[in-house]
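To fix ideas, we quote verbatim a fold written out as tokens:
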Amino acid sequence: MEQHEITLDQEVSRRVMAARLAIGLLQGVLLYWLYAAHRDLAWPATEPYLMGPLTTVLLILPVLSISSLGHLAPRKAAIWLLVALAVLLVLSLHDSWRGLNAWPLLSNWDQKPVFSPSTLVVSFSGVFFFIAHSMVTAGAQEGRRIASYNAYFETAWKLAIQLLFSAFFVGALFLVLMLGAELFMLVKLRFLRELLQKSWFNVPVICTAFSCAMHVTDVRPAIVRGIRTLLLVLMSWILPVAVVLVTGFLCTLPFTGLTALWETRHATAVLLSAAAVLLVLTNAAFQNGDAKVALPLRVAARTAAIVILPVTMVGIYALGLRVAQYGWTTDRVIAAACLLVASCYAIGYLWAAYQYDTWLAPLTTVNIGAAFLILAVLLSLFTPIADPARIGVNSQVARLERGKTAAERFDFRYLRYEGGRYGKAALERLKQATGPNAALLQREATAALALPDKDRWRASPRASAPVSVATNLTVWPAGVQLPASFLAQKWDAILDNVKPSCLTSAEGKCDAFVLDLTGDGKPEILLVEAPRGAHSVVYGEGEDGSWKAIAHLSYRLSVCQPLLEKLRQGAYSVVEPSFKDLNVGGQRVELEPEFVEGNLCDKFK
């Protein structure tokens, strides 16, 4: 260990520091250039095969260069950076080719679109190169293609701490700059505040400060190792809590059943998160395998290694149900890839847990193998090998052709906005459809192809429109009819963050309470998403006959089941507000009552 610290101190020199700062400054200048082009609708932002690759490369490659300096020999560093550049170009060019990286500026819908890499490609490329760079650096330091687990552990955690504290340094720097701006404002000097509003200043400063922080953390390896050790110890003591909670959850499933789990519609994501937390905390306790660990932590780590498998299996079952009901989509393909990796970990950790002669020693082999699997999976997802968009489009069209999805309920918007070039090609084929539903398919496919890019945010492209909104609503009081104009409303024209899912999705369900909240004799409708009331909106009819959101029920009340049950029973009345509104300068100002102490939901029991 000591030799490792001395080697780092010798390699990281003033010349390396100057090179790192220069790389950071150059990165900032070039990223500002791309930002300005995107803002001004100028070249290269209008070129899909330039903007995406340039942005992806400039976000990731300079960080790899900064980290490589002082740790890889010049020849090895050059080879590694060329390989990284080639991989980044392949991923980003494929992303551009898919046709999913066009983004019309919100401020001017009528202008031609500008391009940028998709969020998924940038984020998963960051994960890919964090793993790959750690493995390359560790292998180079030991002079082996496959390094020891201790080298991987040291390198990966050091890089993680560096990135974390570099981001913290940048944030702290800007807090100080903002404080300085406010100090100068006390004497009526606005130059620093105005400077902090300029992107030409902020972007280069962020990149330069980040590279500076990467260097500072690099020349103090003992400090970084101390922070890492403290962080891992603290995280390891969270492991028993996580094990108790996850084990308790698994023990309740035989009694509660899985129905409530599936009704959440995000069970797979939560289960994957639970598995990931157990993996991270188990490794925090295990560290490099040589750490002295207290008996409670050893028991908790072994238990966690066992329960990861059932958590993953429930996640696989949850995803399988969704795929069987609605087919593959982009999100479900990515979830399946994550579950594949989680399964590899789960099986390996279960094997390690039953090796009683050593304390989880096989985790070293499992973690190295899983790292290579993650790299392979990520390359497959973001190249034509297992493109989620292609798999999703093929699955949805196949379900339509086999009759599993009715033509009138088929989500043409999904093909248009999430299928990329695959979706557009499928829509072109549907324009030539034959058979009993040919007219409907041809009409809807033509309409979907004509949709502008700006309409991507008008309605959820993942949701299939129901045959009738009425089928998704349970009306209260029972027997009351909803206004015909409400049922005939074109809900796709309303933004997703306003309307409940029951107005656009065949999967969404709501309770609809017909009330007269304004006292004008015309009904208003309170929609509360079922079964948990996660989203509730009050709709009122305007003079033009259209329905718009006019109010909402707070989240802490909309999830209160006793309150909702009283509403269903009709145990309510409309009363005057406690405070009248103020008219200030011709504008109505509402006064909000103070927060009620205690659990407000308990008052309805």
In short: The chain has 22 helices and nine strands.
